[in-house]
Every structure is written in C-alpha cells, then in structure tokens.
Design brief:
CATH class of the largest domain: Alpha Beta
Order of helices and strands: EHHEEEHEHEHEHHEEEHEHEH
CATH superfamily of the largest domain: Gcn5-related N-acetyltransferase (GNAT)
Bound molecules: coenzyme A
Number of domains: 2
Number of helices: 10
Radius of gyration: 21 Å
CATH architecture of the largest domain: 3-Layer(aba) Sandwich
Strand content: 25-35%
C-alpha cells in the first residue's frame, strides 16, 4: 500500500468510496469536491487529501487541514473502501496525517468541523466504526452539537417587521458587492474573520445570499446562506450585535434567507451547528434533525 497526495483528477474515485461509506448523507460529486479541494482560506489553511493506493486502485482517503499559525488542525472526511475494512488502511492514512501535523507544530486536531467548509460539524455517532476508529486513535469527545431542519412549505412574511424596523431607523436589505467596507468594519468589531470569510462567500452568490440590517450607515446584524453545501439549502451564519438584540431583527433576517432558499427550489433548509434552538423553533418552525459528537485529539500530550 502506498500513501500519496490526491489530485483533483482523483475525485471520481474518492466519490465512489464516499458514496458507499457515508450512508446517512446524500451528496453530489460537486459537494464532495467543495469539501476536499475548495479551500476557502488558502492564506491560513493548507488542504491535503491523502490517498491509500494498492497498485492503481484507490482504497481509502483522508482529508486534512493544517492551520500552522494557530497550531491547529482538522481531520476532514475519511473513508476506506468496504473491501478493505479492518486492514489498517485508515490507520496508515491517519499516521501520515499525524506526522505532517507534528512537523507543522500542530497541537490540537478537531474532527470534521473545518472552518467555513464542513460536511458535518462533528461525527454522526451512527457512523459507529468511525467513532471506534477515532477513539482508538486517541480522539476525545468534548461536546455535542445539532443541525436543525426547517420546512419551506410557505413563504415567510417579513414586510410588517421591515416596516416596523424602518420606523425606528433600521433598514433591512440584501447585501451588494459594494458593501465590502461596511462588512469589514462590522466583522472587525463584532464577529471576527471566520464569519467575515463566510459572509464573503455568501455575498459572492448570485444574487448575494447575504441580508443586512443597517442603522446610521452601519451594519448591526446579518444573516447568510449558501456559502457552502448549497444543495442542502444551507443556512448561516447569522449574528446581531448585542446592542441591537431584542428588536426581532434576527427573525426578519432569518426569514429572508429561508425565503431565498425556498425561491431557489429547496423544500427544506438545514440550519447547522446551532446555537439558540428555541429561536429557530419559534420563528421558522425548525426542529432538531441530527446530533453530532465533537471529537478532538491533543497531539502534544500524545508524544
Ligand atoms: C471508519 C473507517 C474509515 C475505518 O477504516 P478502516 O480502514 O477499516 O480502519 P482501521 O482498519 O485502520 O481501524 C483501526 C482501528 O479502529 C477501530 N475500528 C475500525 N473499524 C471498527 C469497527 N467496525 N468496529 C470497531 N472498531 C473499529 C479498531 O480499533 C481498529 O483497530 P483493530 O482492527 O486493530 O481492532 C471505515 O469503517 C469507513 O470507511 N467507514 C465509513 C465512513 C465513515 O464513517 N467515515 C467517517 C465519517 S467522515
């Protein structure tokens, strides 16, 4: 068995393995390509897809992300062809990944929750062999999180709320590419660079998948969708500055995003990695769809 680095031309082989392996998920080859090869922060993160090959056959893959500047890493999607389970294929891939992380000074690795480009925000524990594999390799479960799902069977009413907000000096509108300066100021002050990056990806959609609340020429709240996993009707992130909370601004922005997703033909929206479950249950009738276990590996303590 050889371990090599994948090229984009290996995508189809990876997709064939992934489609069989990830039985609780439905996804296209384009979505897998986004996860494995489309690095949204190339200045910060290094993406690598390791392949296990026997002769010319790919029998397993493992995606890794390294953020050397913060001594952090992420273990992305990984799978072994069913014909080769329990032959230490994934373990060999993992050892390569750990060697590279150690060489880059990485001290902590989280499973699956890559910033701005995650398939799931943790491990669905129904993937029990993967759970056993992670624990076998020293990963520790440290938290849970949930994805919600919202039905899009009707359009949400926003006009009344928008009128009320207008009367108190808050304008609600879709972002445009000319909003970059406003967005930079807002995210510098409030929610930081990770969400700035996701907002940029959302804003680059056509039409921009980003809605804003503005008061006195400054952004006070935002909501986004479709920055990744577009085929799943993927909502988020969203945020309202602490001073602007309690005015139902978030409700309007959330509903505008879900109306966009409905107009694009989605029947449901995934609201990932929440957060205030009650807010989404109340305003868009969302419910918990899946629960994920978050795992991390401390490399420093392993050596
Ligand atoms: C998880 C997965 C990648 C493991 O691949 P693999 O190549 O069979 O794993 P390894 O042979 O390297 O397993 C190493 C250790 O993990 C544990 N392990 C792996 N599969 C296991 C299983 N089915 N049951 C219990 N423990 C298991 C064992 O401790 C094993 O060591 P051992 O065989 O010496 O007892 C494979 O089962 C798979 O492709 N699953 C579906 C995809 C998936 O769930 N991916 C993760 C989510 S992205």
């Amino acid at each position: 068995m050889n371990i090599i680095t994948a090229k984009t031309s290996d995508l189809t082989a990876n997709y064939n393995i992934a489609r069989d392996a990830f039985q609780y998920d439905t996804f296209s080859i384009n979505l897998l390509e986004e996860k494995l090869f489309r690095n949204p922060s190339p200045d910060l993160d290094e993406y690598r897809v390791l392949l296990a090959k026997v002769d010319e056959n790919i029998i397993g893959f493992m995606h890794t992300v390294t953020r050397a500047t913060e001594s952090r890493g992420w273990l992305g999607l990984f799978a072994t062809a069913a014909t080769h389970h329990r032959q230490h294929v994934a373990s060999r891939l993992h050892q390569h990944a750990v060697d590279a992380w150690n060489a880059a000074g990485v001290q902590q690795v989280e499973a699956l929750a890559m910033p701005g480009n995650y398939f799931t925000p943790g491990l669905d524990p129904r993937y029990t062999p993967a759970l056993c594999f992670l624990e076998h390799h020293g990963f520790e479960r440290f938290s849970d999180c949930a994805n919600l799902i919202a039905p899009l069977d009707r359009e949400f009413e926003t006009a009344e709320d928008e009128e009320r907000l207008k009367k108190i000096g808050v304008a609600v509108r879709r972002a445009t590419i000319d909003d970059n300066k406003l967005l930079d100021d807002f995210f510098n002050e409030e929610f930081g660079p990770a969400w700035r990056m996701e907002a940029a990806l959302a804003c680059a959609q056509d039409p921009p998948a980003l809605h804003l609340a503005i008061e006195n020429d400054r952004i006070i709240a935002f909501s986004a969708h479709s920055s990744q996993n577009r085929e799943w009707g993927f909502f988020g992130p969203m945020g309202t500055t602490p001073a602007a909370r309690g005015k139902s601004i978030g409700r309007v922005l959330l509903r505008r995003c879900l109306n966009d997703l409905r107009a694009a033909g989605h029947r449901t929206s995934i609201i990932p990695w929440v957060g205030p479950i009650g807010f989404y249950a109340k305003h868009v009738n969302a419910h918990v769809d899946r629960v994920f276990w978050r795992y991390r590996l401390t490399l420093a303590s392993q050596s």
